């Protein structure tokens, strides 16, 4: 096996192996655990960047392994997988630092970090999957790896949430299983780089292909939190902040969204999906989700729940962009995959900081918090502006492209939806920002965590600032060569030039 | 190794555990476990060697004493036998390793447990005998030995519930063997032969053969505990002691399943009908739903795992409707290979997973002193390895990737779609869903918080490790099906049509 063949495998293993070793460490060996974790996270990022460099130079990275009969395990790197892999490796690194600070001194950290690494393994695997079977394997693997994280606190509420989470994801997985086998029966292993297999079947089997599409969307839609399959997401909020952060930014919900992108672009192919008339209903579902999520977010007083509903809404921009034909809209969708991740993780870090430092969980208790925790609230403000879509934060860029793309195909109603959604975003984020900076605090702040010079320990503050700066930077420098937007554009152009 | 020596290995597979059993019986009680484990290791090694030879040189036939059929008794090993032999060897070895510290615990070492080793090794010999016999009467003998030693093992503890369940088990086992024997007698009367190959060649279409085969089939269905003939299984499997439960659930029911499969494709392939295949599939489907649903309702862990066996056995029977179809040419039925491997894979994956699950539950029960579902609250903190073993086994039972159970369900589902028998698909999925329900119910308890630190009885580490190894095996076979399939392919019967009638030449 050459290096180029084994690299995708090594990338996946770079978080799996540390994760497995962590299970065998003793609970108190925190230093060893930290070193392992950081080593894995840094190694993964370095390898992914190296592969990115190689891809730009025209190298190919593919790992194949025959499971038996016609089941083949394939890891392949293309630009789309890199986009997701880079996102997850960077955010894993940041979240690991955050989690180490967040969980300091709490019990069962071994279990937490073990499953945390395995969860990242699953999402990297999803990114690098080269065919539909491999994708499905990692997709289900992710469910298993995240369950212990959701119930980590072990409270009755957490267990209840875990149960809801499982019913939804196992149900979705089962439906997806049917879809994947059906797909397999129709068109073979569905290698993602060989789009067009299904196009040949379109004439004879168009009805079957249509039904199959919705079966697959139903399976993927659970993790992508499409209404009405989103019910688990706000409930899964009881998980510790780093878990929510990772779940909402890269792991679970992105797996679903990424799956939808793969399904439309690389399994059906955008032309076939369009020809079968699948895209407009998908766009409608996405817009309903966008509006519904925002409406529900408005009504939430619990900060994390508000963020959760905001995720439901923001995530569907990706599905929406995928459902619009055209380079611009696709660019917007793919860029939003990254942008939403970076901004949302910032918001969850902030919510975690406030909860950990001041014990505040409710939106109504945030009056004046900006004076007590200015850095955290500054980060929150940046990310919230991004979510609303104010320039120059990243969220503006993706919404701009989505809007342009919609206009290109003459779907003005989508622009109206985008504007309405922005207005709703503003109305649930701006009051927080306003209250935090301009209202008088209600009373003395309680303090649960202290740091000598900072408002909260640096391990919590550092990641927050880093992702906030990143969400500003990828917006500001969106047109430079190395931005996610540029990468998204390349992918989109390649897609339509096929 | 020359051909004669390697075919003599087949005899060793039966002789070794029998010898071990005799030695264990004669040795003082304290030395029995060691002798038992050594025998287990030797038998497993011989099994591996046999599988290796069969994979390399093709099927082996060994005439005991050099007589040969129809006068003497033949042993026969092809890919199908080897796959079952190997599973028995691996599960048997690790269960043996688990059993030694298990029976060393004072509270488990009651009743007649000193007889565990001789009985278990005899049972093992009869299992191997089932997989190797090429003769209907010899199979009957093995079936009887297997049934009796299994019942004896089930009641070793001497506890009243075990005795009650054991009696039921005994009656079911005897009724099953009787039906089988009557069928065999009818066949002997008609073709004057017992060797499978000769019988297969001599079978004609006709009512008497149908009746004979029906008797045999019903007898074996009772022994395999297929719905609705499963009434004896939950009691017997759940009241036995942990290593015994593992043996009964993982291995014993597989042997009679193997025999059904063997007879179906190799001997009675001309007499079976599409309707019969569908009927077996329907029983399997009912078993999947009923067994899994019952498992979900149980509050005692061992009962839950035992009911889960009923459900999982159902999956194996979906193989029959999928391979029993009318077609002219194999190329028209590309799903046959999938159905065949899916069904067998299910048997193997379930063997590993169920053994792991019973062993893990045994560890829980030993640590807490009860196998009530609620008593496992918060065990993950103190018994992480066993919780993990249980989770791995559960993943395979549910059929989540990557695991043996996933490969099995994938292939069955695919065969169901390709063959147009899509009606099995919802059953397969509903079963997975219910299985997920009970597996996660246990895991949820294990992860639940505890207000107080529970005082656990220490459990020997070996027991924890063996459960984990078997759980891992259920997952690992999901990563590498290729060798397994190559082995299964040796002289595979599915390469030729099951229906309509074919000239048999094995």
Structure, explained:
In chain A, helix 2 runs antiparallel to helix 3 and helix 13 runs antiparallel to helix 14. Chain A has 498 residues and is mainly α. Chain A has a two-stranded antiparallel sheet with strand order 1-2. Chain A is globular and about 70 Å long. Helices cover 74% and strands 3% of the residues of chain A. The two termini of chain A are 30 Å apart. Chain A contains 20 helices and two strands. The model of chain A has no long low-confidence stretch (mean pLDDT 88). By secondary structure, chain B is mostly helical. Chain B folds into two domains: 272 residues, no CATH class; 201 residues. Chain B has 19 helices and two strands. The chains are: A mainly alpha (498), B mainly alpha (506). The interface between A and B is large, with 35 and 41 residues.
Keywords:
heterodimer, A: 498 residues, mainly alpha, two-stranded antiparallel ribbon, 20 helices, 2 strands, 74% helix, globular, B: 506 residues, 2 domains, two-stranded antiparallel sheet, 19 helices, 2% strand, disordered C terminus
Low-confidence stretches of chain B: 494-506
What number is the mean pLDDT of chain A?
A: 88
The residue fraction in helices of chain B comes out at over 70%
Radius of gyration over C-alpha positions of chain A, nearest whole angstrom = 21 Å
Query: Which sheet architecture does the biggest sheet of chain A show?
Result: 2 strands, antiparallel
- Note the beta-strand portion of chain B: under 5%
Outline of chain A, from the CA principal axes? globular
Number of individual domains of chain B = 2
First-last Cα distance of chain B: 24 Å
Multimerization state: heterodimer
Biggest sheet: strand arrangement of chain B: 1-2
Strand order of the largest sheet of chain A: 1-2
Short synopsis of the structure:
The complex is a heterodimer of chains A (498) and B (506). Chain A has 498 residues and is mainly alpha-helical. Helices cover 74% and strands 3% of the residues of chain A.
